[in-house]
Specification:
Chain lengths: ~450, ~250
């Protein structure tokens, strides 16, 4: 088997020809190395940085596509070399900070995501538990082995949600099954504001972000087409996302797979809520006397800024946070387009969990440096990973979603109705009385169920 | 004047022949790289094409995706002014600007110089005398852009040597290529100084006997170390980086 694999040349099938050019466009300025969040916690492994990955790809490609190979014939790829290259390529969270600082203008996220399917096709990737993603998602349409019929089991009974409407809230698998506090806060706010929103229920399938990120594209097409069709059938004109991973996939990846016209706009929930705040619709009742910082999720920030602009990507969430009375906001040193990735992305949380954890601890340290009590974000995966980092580092910071802060300050009842997934809930929460709120942590009651950690 | 071309056993015609060979290898190298890049596809999850022409078509499609105005804006801001480098490091920007414009200008001047030499050598259209005059006028820009390249190359070499992080991540490959640029620049200057009456140093290094030999050594180094290996080494970024910036409309 090893010999068979070794005899296969490096494959280029998923790469655009301009991406192959980008690899040669790297001028080895080393700027990416200064910002790479995984290299920051693995300084003994420069091979995981973009500059070295590009160099390695060139070397491997040259074995069969150089002038020497043309004259004297190609060389088989060395299994050990391929193993190292695969590990290095998958030790990337696809956060994209390298692309932001790249002097050559290389679109690095797209480049790594194009390299990975070739490694999968060649039999080198994915790594660790990432190979479970397609199997689980294909079987259950979500990665948590949960029932699709129970997608809305967490919605408070007093909120009636139609299956169609011009505004659709796409909750995502994690808010539906593992971090229901986020889902409840989102629907509570929308309901309070009188927004006539719909949800897809069992027709909402996993966004398939993890598959794209890890180079396992085969399930992606099916899910992208299904979700777009379901949203079209629901009559959506505006689709709201409180999950950065789903948002990125819906805004960037689904259209690449969908051949028809997409009539709706994808929008972060924070952007939608900011509009309502500006209109004066949002009424806060309880001041939150906490110092809060904001962690820009890569998928909601850097990945979105090229499509929707920096205001949507970076400022909307901050505007929501700073609108909350009593709250003291402090940005971390690395913020917005140069923020430090939490470490969960790119399938790293599932594939190389210790690396994800170390990245999360670095982000927790960033938070502690500005003496914030709460790290707010708009990504359930960042939240999961940073909470793990926080626990490992024995830090006292709490990690909450922006909408949860807003819902608490608005005095909304964010109690999660009892449901089959209550026992899997594990998240920091704000428990509020009519006059004040208290930070708390909900511990998971039934461990060991998930095959995969929450990861995108 | 003609004696300059009969040195180290190389005749003028032989040098011209070598230059043509180098140019041919260079052009083939560029074609080879374009064909290699053509191993990719023309669109997301499209089939492989493996074609030189479809690479060009894909590149043109990507570069002009947002229209001519965006292409021109990217050309000016990102390719000619190196906006992205300036945003990250002013020192590296100065280094790149010096090397980029120094290299481009010297390459253009060398090309013109070669044409002028041919005119002088064969007295084409009886213009040998005028061509000699042109060569004299070219001396100053050659010097100025040479100093510009030298300044950039010195920064490049210095940061590779003096800054620990940069030094630690410098491979032998980087060192060889940057060293080669530095060597070519230095030998170019020394060749110029040996001719005498050079900018800034006057006749301090004048040596009319060895000047033609050294000049030829510089020419051979430039052709061999740089032009010949450009398409086959990291130097290809001189072509690939601007093309990447244009294809990605300035990058992320």
């Amino acid at each position: 088997m090893a010999n068979e694999k070794g005899s296969k040349p490096l494959m280029t099938g998923y790469m655009l020809s301009t991406q192959l050019m980008e690899v040669d466009g790297c001028n080895r300025c080393q700027e990416c190395m200064k910002w790479c969040p995984t290299f920051a916690v693995r300084p003994d492994r420069p091979g995981i940085t973009p500059m070295y990955k590009n160099a390695r790809w060139r070397e491997l490609l040259a074995k069969n596509h150089s002038l020497r190979a043309k004259i004297f014939g190609g060389k088989p790829l060395n299994d050990d070399e391929m193993k190292v290259f695969t590990e290095d390529t998958y030790s990337c969270t696809t956060c994209g900070v390298c692309g932001t600082v790249c002097e050559a203008g290389i679109k690095t996220v797209e480049l790594w995501e194009a390299m990975r399917p070739n490694l999968v096709a060649r039999g080198d990737g994915p790594v660790g538990k990432q190979s479970f993603f397609p199997k689980l998602v294909k079987a259950d349409r979500n990665p948590y082995q949960a029932k699709q019929d129970e997608r809305l089991c967490w919605v408070p009974k007093d909120i009636k949600i139609p299956e169609s409407g011009e505004i659709v809230y796409f909750a995502g698998c994690t808010a539906a099954y593992r971090q229901q506090a986020l889902g409840v806060a989102s629907v509570r706010i929308l309901d309070k504001l009188g927004v006539p929103f719909a949800m897809l229920g069992k027709d909402e399938w996993c966004c398939a972000s993890a598959m794209v990120r890890t180079g396992q594209r085969e399930v992606m097409a099916e899910h992208a087409v299904h979700n777009v069709d379901a949203l079209k059938d629901a009559g959506a004109k505006n689709v709201l996302f409180a999950c950065a991973g789903c948002l990125r996939n819906a805004a960037v990846d689904w259209p690449l797979w969908y051949e028809g016209y997409i009539p709706y706009e994808t929008m972060p929930l924070s952007v939608f809520l900011r509009e309502r705040i500006r209109k004066g619709d949002v009424e806060y009742k309880i001041p939150l006397n906490y110092s809060v910082t904001y962690h820009d999720p890569c998928h909601n920030g850097r990945h979105l800024m090229h499509l929707k602009g920096k205001d949507w990507a970076f400022e909307a969430s901050r505007d929501c946070i700073t609108s909350i009375p009593g709250l003291k906001f402090r940005d971390m040193v690395r913020n917005r387009a140069l923020q430090r990735c939490c470490g969960a992305g790119g399938g790293v949380k599932a594939g190389i969990p210790d690396l994800a954890l170390d990245c999360a601890k670095a982000r927790v340290k960033d938070c502690e440096e500005v003496q914030a009590e709460v790290m707010a974000s708009t990504c359930p995966f960042c939240r999961r990973n940073i909470m793990d980092g926080r626990n490992d580092a024995k830090s006292s910071i709490k990690v909450l979603d922006v909408v949860e802060l807003m819902a608490a300050s608005m005095g909304l009842d964010t109690t999660i109705p009892e449901n089959p997934y209550t026992k899997f809930q594990e998240q920091d929460v704000l428990v509020c009385t009519p006059t004040e709120c208290k930070l708390d942590t909900v511990e998971r009651k039934e461990p060991g169920k998930d095959l995969l950690p929450e990861a995108h | 004047m003609e004696s300059q071309f009969y040195t180290l056993g190389l005749t003028f015609n032989l040098v011209i022949f070598l230059t043509v060979v180098v140019l041919a290898v260079w052009i083939y190298g560029i074609y080879f790289n374009f064909k290699k890049w053509g191993l990719g596809s023309t669109g997301y999850h499209d089939q492989l094409r493996n074609s030189f022409w479809l690479f060009l078509a894909t590149w043109i499609n990507e570069a002009f995706k947002d229209g001519l105005w965006v292409f021109l804006r990217t050309l000016v801001w990102d390719v000619l002014i190196l906006r992205r480098t300036l945003a990250r490091s002013p020192v590296r920007w100065i280094m790149h600007i010096c090397m980029f414009y120094g290299f481009l200008a010297l390459a253009a001047l060398s090309g013109i110089g070669l044409m002028v030499d041919i005119v002088v050598h064969f007295n084409l259209l009886g213009l040998a005398e005028s061509a000699e005059l042109v060569k004299e006028y070219m001396a100053l820009p050659f010097d100025l852009f040479g100093y510009l390249l030298l300044f950039g190359a010195t920064i490049a070499l210095s940061r590779r040597i003096l800054i620990k992080f940069v030094r630690d991540n410098t491979s032998a490959y980087d060192a060889l290529l940057i060293g080669a640029v530095f060597l070519i620049t230095i030998t170019g200057f020394y060749a110029e100084w040996m001719r005498g009456n050079a900018f800034l140093v006057g006749n301090a290094f004048e040596n009319p006997i060895y000047a033609p030999h050294f000049s030829l050594i510089h020419t051979l180094l430039a052709l061999g170390l740089f032009a010949l290996i450009l398409p086959w080494s990291k130097y290809i970024h001189i072509i690939a980086t601007p093309m990447t910036l244009l294809a990605n409309r300035g990058g992320e």
